[in-house]
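Exercise 7. Predict the joint structure of the components listed below.
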Amino acid sequence: MEAVSIDNHVVDRRAIDPAVVLDGVSRSFGDRVILDGLDLMIDEGEFVVILGHSGTGKSTLLRILAGLDQEFSGRFLAPSQRSIAFQEPRLVPWRRVLPNVTLGLNGDTAQALGREALDEVGLGTHLRAWPNTLSGGEAQRVALARAMVRMPDLLLLDEPFGALDALTRVQMQELLMELCAKHRPTVVLVTHDVEEAVLLADRLLVLDGGRFILDQRVTLPRPRLRTAPDVQRIRADVLRALGVFDERSEPS
Ligand SMILES: Nc1ncnc2c1ncn2[C@@H]1O[C@H](COP(=O)(O)OP(=O)(O)OP(=O)(O)O)[C@@H](O)[C@H]1O
Ligand SMILES: [Mg+2]
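Solution:
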């Protein structure tokens, strides 16, 4: 494996098999241990969803995987081509949509790649729009295009649909599945929506007390119906792992 070492953070040049390896990854803030020696292997192309109560360290883990936080102990391996998107689209307000997508991309093909990515998220006609004229769902599509245009081997999504209305959310879930079926990145998505997790995941992880307390593969065929008994059964398992027993309530 051709790998570059940056401190305790080893990044492979190309996607590796498995795509992501965590080896005793820990992160503390002051004397509070948030991540407590996480070990994990994620296969190339796997769609992993992480759930957990608020404050259990999901965003902390994603930031480490994105290379945005070097203050951890342990080691991890991840593809060098990584993109991250957040709950809020984080568009640059003084740049139009296309330059927001191509921000930081160099080379003659950047514009064409940006257009293609926007086409793929259904915003091919909004290239020259300003961010403040977009709906919440459109802005999040732009954020997704910005993540996908880098052709990531690892796509990191931190509650990407958390701020969207229920209908837009379903559309965005479908769009994400289409993009993933086409480009096959390895995905790590964080959500509080257990049903969303079961609909999307190849594998569900629940983070609690600094460790993964549930690691469950979801082999149900796609597309999955939220009303399907198998989906509801797995949803109930996850809620139980989260310590939530009320049938329809979701964790905070
Ligand atoms: N830079 C920081 N300095 C101090 N404490 C931090 C810092 N970043 C995160 N924390 C703390 O670490 C814990 C985990 O934070 P994190 O944002 O990873 O939680 P989370 O699981 O993503 O929560 P949520 O579901 O609410 O987004 C929280 O208690 C948070 O206050
Ligand atoms: Mg978070």
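Discussion. The domain at 3-241 is CATH 3.40.50.300 (Rossmann fold).
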